[in-house]
Amino acid sequence: MKEIALVGFSVNAEIVLDYDRMTQQEKGKLNSIEPYLCGTSANVARAINLLGQTSKVLALTGVNDDFESHVLRFALRQYTIPHSEFKILDKSHISVLPIDNIPKPQIFGKKGKIEEGKINETIAKINEETGLWRIATGVRPEEIELVKTLFNKHAGHRTLNPRPELIMDRSKFFEILKSTDLLIMNHSEFDSCKMTLLSEFHKLGPNLVIITQNENGGMFSKSGLKIERFDPCNDYINPNTEVYGPGAGDWFYASFIVKCIELGKSIQTLSIKDIRECISFAARVSGKKVTMKGAANGPTKEEL
Predict the structure, then answer these.
(1) pTM greater than 0.85
(2) Who wins on pLDDT, 214 or 49?
(3) Which of 13, 15, 131, 217 is the most buried (most CB within 10 A)?
(4) Residue 34 lies in a domain
(5) In which domain, by residue range, is 150 found?
(6) Which of 51-65, 97-111, 279-293 has the lowest mean pLDDT?
(7) Residue 220: CB partners within 8 Å, gap ≥ 6?
(8) Strand 106-109 to strand 94-96: parallel, antiparallel, or no bridges (unpaired)?
């Protein structure tokens, strides 16, 4: 029987515009406008499913029927992975992919504030969700109560990726770490913690801490054991390979969980050998992922 991974709450819509670039007219003809589901949680959930396990997305959407909320809900309906929608934000968050020489996506609206009056209703719904793996990604300070509920009574399967804003809110960050089994961050998020040693985190709760460092691989620390390093996978990269960074961390995160599920292990029962096996698989997946354009686009096992 497959274990279900519940993944939230970093979910938003991304609009892709396809227009005629060959025209001599000042304004090219718009061929299509289509929203896709993106955000860290959506990427992680998609990766878990493509790699052979089962996931469900927990999405926070706007309570009002405004443009952003409508687009996000449409994207959710087009998504091929099961999801639960929680109407709790005052507005949703969508972005537009870069076009031509625009270096960054155009943000239409950042994820809105949580409507306090809706939070108890939302927490009750989360408590009804089933799934042994509880994965919280891109967590903001405002989402702490939701994450605490998501983690409730699921020791060994609670994994956290915090946003820098949460890390800076020390009281909330330390509070959620008490209920965290696996803490996974990139190097810039780790720098925000202002901690010298990974082993310091174990006193705060996490049994396992993993820090990814892009082309430098990364490091991990298991409670009671020494800190160890790991290398990236460069098998799919040559001098002529185009490299795409967005989404690589999400796919690393997801594939680590997939291998844990395949081993039938909780975070606490992983040995150093197990951790290295999981990280080796995750590094291979993310090494292939960076050769594929699009944050939600990644490899299946057959493509590794």
Answers:
(1) yes
(2) 49
(3) 13
(4) no
(5) 4-10+40-62+82-88+116-303
(6) 97-111
(7) 198, 208, 209, 210, 211, 227, 228, 230, 275, 279
(8) antiparallel
